[in-house]
Amino acid sequence: MLYREAGQFKTSYAADQQLFPIRQDRIGVLLLLAVAFVGVPLLASEYWFSAILIPFLIFALAALGLNILTGYAGQLSLGSAAFMAVGAYAAYNFQLRVEGIPVLLSFACAGLTAAGVGVLFGLPSLRIKGFYLAVATLAAQFFIVWCLTKFPWLSNNSSSGVISTQPIEILGLAVDTPREKYLLVLAVVALLALAAKNLVRSSTGRAWMAVRDMDVAASVIGIRLMPTKLLAFAVSSFYCGVAGALYAFCYLGSVEPDGFSLDMSFKILFMIIIGGVGSILGSFLGAAFILLLPIFLDVALPAAAGLFGLPFSSATVSHIQILVFGALIMFFLIVEPHGLARLWQIAKEKLRLWPFPH
Amino acid sequence: MMHRCKPVLSAVALSLAMLSQGAAAAEEQFFPIPGYRVGPYGANGQAFYGGFVDYLNYVNLKEKGVNGVALTWEECETEYNNAKGVECYERLKGKAAKSAGPIHTMSTGISYALIDKSAQDKLPLAMVGYGRTDAVDGSVFPYAFPLVTTYQMQASAIVRFVKDKLGGSLAGKKIVYLYHDSAYGKEAIVALEAEAALNKFALVQIPVAHPGNEQGAQWLKIRQEKPDFVVFWGWGVMNQTALKGAQKVGYPRDKMIGSWWTGSEEDVVPAGDAAKGYMAATWNVAGKQVPVIADIEKVVYGAGKGNLQDKARIGTVLYNRGVSAAVLSVEAIRKGQEKYGKGKALSGEQTRWALENLNITEARLKALGATDLLPEIRTSCDNHEGSGKVKIQQWDGAKWVPVSGWIEGNKALIHPLFQASAKQYAKEKGITPRDCAKEK
Amino acid sequence: MEFFFEVLIGGLLSGVMYALVALGFVLIYKASGVFNFAQGAMVYLAALSVAGCMEKGAPLWLAVILAFVIMTLFGIATERFVLRKLVNQPPIALFMATIGLAFFIEGLAPLVFGSEPRALDLGIVDEPIPYFLDQWNMVISKFDLVAAGVASVLVATLALFFQTTRVGRALRAVADDHQAALSIGIPLQHIWAIVWGVAGFVALVAGLMWGARNGVQFALTFTALKALPVLILGGFTSVPGAIVGGLIIGASEKLAEIYIPPVLAGWFGGNFGGIEGWFPYILALLFLLVRPEGLFGERHIDRV
Hints:
The structure holds three protein chains of three kinds. By secondary structure, chain A is mainly α. Helix content of chain A is 72%, strand content 3%. Chain A has a domain at 21-260. Chain A contains 14 helices and four strands. Chain A has a two-stranded antiparallel sheet. Chain A has a two-stranded antiparallel ribbon with strand order 2-3. The radius of gyration of chain A is 21 Å and the shape is globular. The model of chain A has no long low-confidence stretch (mean pLDDT 87). Chain B folds into two domains: 26-149 and 289-378, Response regulator (Rossmann fold, 3-Layer(aba) Sandwich); 151-282 and 392-409, Response regulator (Rossmann fold), CATH 3.40.50. Chain B has 15 helices and 15 strands. Chain B has helices spanning 2-20, 42-63, 82-93, 108-121, 151-165, 183-187, 189-199, 216-225, 237-249, 265-268, 291-302, 317-340, 348-356, 362-368, 411-429; strands spanning 28-35, 70-77, 103-104, 125-126, 144-145, 174-180, 202-208, 229-233, 256-258, 279-282, 359-360, 377-378, 389-395, 400-402, 407-408. In chain B, strands 6, 7, 8, 9, 10, 13, 14 and 15 form an eight-stranded mixed beta sheet that branches. In chain B, strands 3-4-5 form a three-stranded parallel beta sheet. Chain B has a two-stranded parallel sheet with strand order 1-2. In chain B, helix 2 (42-63) links the parallel strand 1 and strand 2. In chain B, helix 2 crosses helix 12 (317-340), helix 3 (82-93) runs parallel beside helix 4 and helix 5 (151-165) runs parallel beside helix 7. The longest helix of chain B is centred in the last third of the chain and has 24 residues, at 317-340. The termini of chain C are far apart. The longest helix of chain C is centred in the first third of the chain and has 31 residues, at 2-32. Chain C is 73% helix and 0% strand. Chain C is globular and about 60 Å long. Chain C is an all-alpha fold. Classes of the chains: A mainly alpha, B alpha/beta, C mainly alpha. Chains A and B meet through helix 2, helix 3, strand 4, helix 12 and helix 13 of A and helix 1, helix 2, strand 2, helix 3 and helix 4 of B.
């Protein structure tokens, strides 16, 4: 009842082709954006901004990037963190070396740089498939991090290879409090997420999905595999690159190449699998789940132990956290292998009829 | 996306509220501890933070806190991961608003990420023997304290030790620097290069890729180079692998000197016999012969409040290091109370002042029962390091034995490097350095 | 030239160690199509079980037997409670589940046995053999030779097992097609339990060797990273491929570490050592461009 499409007639092509054709979705998204842009900044504390919301949005963006590649174009990649590293270092160098470049432009350039590197490492995908490709993308992961460590020029000859990002200024306004940084990240992420939503329903997105489902069949119906796959790598790396730039500039403030480790790549992969492969919403849900779960366990387990008077040492609690994290991942996969986004879809189906049984 | 997080959010908020109920007594000095006890370096963290927490407990039990101010703390698991470290810091920050002791992260990466934040929040960041080393220059980094020693000063002290060992001159000798290829390993290079130029020895740098569990090629190369000494900057599994690698090519272990991240029981025990004779720098000695360590075991573990599950680890290098770090922190609180009022908890800002005006003399160490546990320290605005001294210890197959006195690195050579680097940082970040002449 | 051979032999022997870990991956992939990312964690669990039992006073042989029992039970439990529930799911979900499993083990193992690094003494000293040192001035470690011997025996046994026994043939049938295998009466679940048991055994052997070499500690989980390039080079489904891949990767990475950085330094200036982290991957990648299914992998034919 609440979520009913019946009675919404489209009278023009424009109306039929809009991004959210159902009225409830439009309202929902607008509400969500309003809450995110106005409500959250009014209510959230500094801890929420800098420890949860900012990393959540940044990782959601990276997960979105990976989801474009893996979920839509079907190319499994284990090197997302490396492309984030490219983005972070590129943004730093653009800021450092191009006099007076606006921050946002340097983020965009960082994304483009990452896209270029992504295409390079996407080339093998034309021949290699499946897990072979996944392992091959590890080459990108290790090689890129090594390069960033080895060429001192990239870190402005810092003796340790660590870069400290420049202060952010947009149109003369300094962005330095957690709230301002949150708004900046949110604006970038919201824009790119809508762009992605638009992209995946375009002919490009449909070509990706055709390749994902069966690339031989796709080429038979006239989709050229090379540009399609490489474009997926480029767009995906662009997203990861921008996420990396935001990670360095708006979240940590100082990064080292080793920080963009394989663990981080895996974390991003978890996000899309738990959230939902091939779903924009899933990237956000997955990022929230993977980031919040450890924090929740961290807070809840000692509290629970205290409640029941169990004599847990700190090390024990930490080990149990990891154990529970692993168990929950397995549990979720068993219960819902298509991810959290699928649960949301089921909920929508139910809402369509609710409160009537049929 | 938001509707899905809400239940989780409120649950987190609820449990946070539950946790904070306990801390409402009169005067308490809070220590935020973003530490780690799991993950690749978890074993090291357990010993270090075990010692740290045990000493805080010890002060509480023995003398009811510092001048009556009880010490409290909260730990948060960082897993040695930079992003998690930031999350922990932000979580603990709220509680540290009223009173805060120095924050020890035991991670170079996390301290790098916290340097700017902690300065903004006015919370003092202690990086005892690690971290952003150019923070020695306190005029640019008021809130960061690489106390006791830094990688560069340590490398310089090791070179001095080697020089004595080789008969007073290094001219024409060859030293191999085998290091973990990361920020940590690369920090010491500038110091070693400067020493090589000064002392006219040949320096061969051999990096090892993370995690360093394969060093066959590197050790064959070392065998070919035939160096007089190997200076070794390893980490985690890389340490045992290096010792085994040395054994494999027959390189004598007593010609290897490691940094303080390579010189704990956790580093040598897994290598078995291969570690015998190996030397490492350290800024604290091991063993229970130190009175305060023995007393902790008696008082804290006697009361059943010990932090370690395995009591056998009391007196290990890293445990004693945790105690030393806690001694420094508690002494800072004491110093701060002298200025800001006895029996009052110190805010982060006040603790910062105290850390900058530390003066722990030999006599004070003796009074604490910590003679020789750590070197004397005297900090100031332009010297946040305060000591620059290390000892060299040797593994005899069962325990670490000190084989030197406190050796100071070449300050005249190394400290200008810090100042130059800090100046560059100030320029990049647009920081106006304080005038140290005016500080007191 | 002498040095070249020394590095080459050292590399080949290291390669055997990589192959030991890679074998575990191959076994499970071959029999169930699961890319088992938890193999590295299983190596850790196995080694830690041995060290933990020995710490409680068991002699080495008993500890190894106990560890074997633990690994087998663990393998069966994994099959029973995780994989069986995920039958017919896409490979990526199974892969992901094994990553979850890896976390689970990384939390569980130290919880039971403690996380401090320990030494594992198998009674074989890791020292250069005097004969080679005196006669050829070459460093060849006794331990590495023993490891190579163990690996060869293991591979020969497994190859025979797959080729000649009933269970082995059933395993191959299951790997080809779950449903077809079921329809001709192969008990899928028993077969998988056996595979996970065998993979646990291989993890135990790898854990013993790696644990004795570098100490028993968390970093044993990283051994998986050394095995992955071996795996793509040799092919996911080939036991001999794991060995040959291991030898190639081991030898080439050591030679590369010695001979490539000076060349790079000549071009760019600076120190370019430490290429071992990525070199095997790039090598495997280039190799895959020529043979996309690895050296001995099964050729995949796409049909529309």
